Amino acid sequence: LIIGASSGLGKSIANCFSENEKTIVISRRNIKTTKKNIIPIEIDINTGNLDYLYEKINENQLTNIFFTAGLTDWENDDIFLNYEKSEKIFQTNFLSIKKIISELIKKKKLNSNCLICFCSSVTTILPRQRQITYCAAKSALNAYYKSLSTYFYINALNYRVANLILGYMDTEMNKNINLPFRKENPDVIAEFLFKKRGTLKGIYYLPRYWLLIKIIVNLLPEKILFKIIKTLNF
Predict the structure, then answer these.
(1) Per-residue pLDDT at 169
(2) Which of 111, 98, 199 has its CA nearest to residue 151?
(3) Helical spans, DSSP H, in 43-174
(4) Cα separation, 57 vs 24, whole angstroms
């Protein structure tokens, strides 16, 4: 099951996994595909009725779930972003994801050793002037990942949780945007996930150099960090 697969990383994951497995893809836009193993469902996860999705999935059927849906506003997402737009960004990047997982667990749709994989963001690592609501939603997703992992462990539930802290992807979301680091090919990330699908668990920084950046950021005094960010115009 892939939530958010009309383009970008979600589409790459769908194309990669559908070569070998039946793949349900969710998108608020129409998904055009000729691949026989892809089952497209057009629905907005924030406002649509998801009962149809749950009915399409048999009990204990899901082996992998990828949450790749994302929404941001490069131009307006600052400290003055209005409530309506903030709510939509927060819902898409966190609240709707939490809701879907809760329902899938309650309805017993997850197979033993099922993988639940979140796509977070390196925006949670660096202080922001822009994408503030997006960053807050991804930070909430990071915290939820930890809570969900703890819940599965304490209650002896045989499900795996992975959290991808992703760098900048070469997708429509980042089109024509000047970025401080190179954009990653989503097809490469999808192939990595397919190869690791049976053992994937925990936190992954992709590309890996973002883990080093996180360590440096955590060690620097705030004043120096702010000066660096201002100089580099992140």
Answers:
(1) 85
(2) 98
(3) 51-56, 83-90, 96-106, 132-154
(4) 9
The pTM of the whole model exceeds 0.85 = yes
CA distance 213 to 234: 14
Exposed/middle/buried for residue 186 (C-beta within 10 Å: 0-12, 13-18, 19+): buried
Per the structure block, which two tokens stand in for 27?
Answer: 């998108």
The answer to whether 53 and 43 have CB atoms below 8 angstroms apart is yes
β-strand partners of 25: 2, 40
Model confidence pLDDT, tens digit, residues 18-51: 998 999 999 987 777 767 899 999 999 999 999 9
Burial class (CB in 10 A: 0-12, 13-18, 19+), 225: middle
- Return the sign of the alpha-carbon dihedral for residues 106, 64, 27, 25: negative
d(CA 177, CA 92): 21
Task: Measure the CA–CA gap between 164 and 203, rounded to whole angstroms.
Answer: 6
Q: Work out whether strand 202-206 and strand 62-67 pair parallel, antiparallel, or are unpaired.
A: unpaired
Cβ pair 60, 158 in contact under 8 A: no
* CB of 170 closer than 8 Å to CB of 185: yes
Q: What pLDDT, in 10s, does the model give residues 105-150?
A: 999 999 999 999 999 999 899 888 889 999 999 999 999 999 999 9
What count of other Cβ atoms lies within 10 Å of the Cβ of residue 10? 26
- Angstrom distances, CA of residue 130 to CA of 47, 176, 211: 26, 16, 22
Q: Do 183 and 169 form a contact (C-beta atoms < 8 A)? A: yes
The pair of structure tokens assigned to 87 is 């709510």
